[in-house]
């Protein structure tokens, strides 16, 4: 009888013990200049249950707003045109390929982003227009502040972690870079960044890839 009672108590304790919440703080710096990197998207390599949203990237003054959007997988994104000129929005990224041909106003239907990954946007009419959508399947995600710092909620029982870091000036900005961490100690992670462009070469390359499809 005593043994059975002990077993019941242990089971109840197991059920009632919460998963200890913890935090991971990282600072992202540029390996070339050692300067902090603001607006880097940082997220853990894990899958959570997320609620899709409806968001928008609008076109105004021949530019996308915002230039970087983070949405949960399964979300819908609208692309309203608030310019007086027409736009032709497209993406041929593996995470989502679509083509909204020349239009004014608001397209009839939003675009469903049903796969995680980095989606690069362009306009086939205006070469300078460029934006990115980060489609995520984790809620442990955010952007670094002006000091290149971010704190993500995690679990004390998670163990080794894979941290993904994305920035639009990565040499290959079609995917994040990975960093393996053995613990939750606050630390600095470095990434390689291309210099800030003085010309529109990167955007022209995007246009060239579109026209070669």
Describe the protein.
- This protein is mainly beta and 213 residues long.
- The protein has two domains: 20-47 and 142-213, Carboxypeptidase-like, regulatory domain (Immunoglobulin-like); 49-137, Immunoglobulin-like.
- The chain is built from two helices and 17 strands.
- It has helices at 2-16, 201-211; strands at residues 21-30, 41-44, 54-56, 58-60, 63-65, 68-72, 75-78, 87-93, 96-103, 111-113, 117-123, 130-136, 141-143, 149-155, 161-166, 177-181, 187-191.
- A five-stranded mixed β-sheet has the order 6-12-11-8-9, with helices on one face. A four-stranded antiparallel β-sheet has the order 13-2-15-16, with no helix packed on it. Strands 14-1-17 form a three-stranded mixed β-sheet, with no helix packed on it.
- A hairpin with a 6-residue loop joins β11 (117-123) and β12.
- The longest helix is centred in the N-terminal third of the chain and has 15 residues, at 2-16.
- The protein is globular.
- The chain starts with a helix and ends with a helix.
- Mean pLDDT is 85; it is low at 2-20.
- InterPro entries: Cupredoxin, MauL.
- Residues 1-21 form the signal peptide.
- This is Methylamine utilization protein.
Overview features:
single chain, 213 residues, mainly beta, Immunoglobulin-like, 2 domains, four-stranded antiparallel sheet, 2 helices, 12% helix, disordered N terminus, Cupredoxin, signal, Methylamine utilization protein, MauL
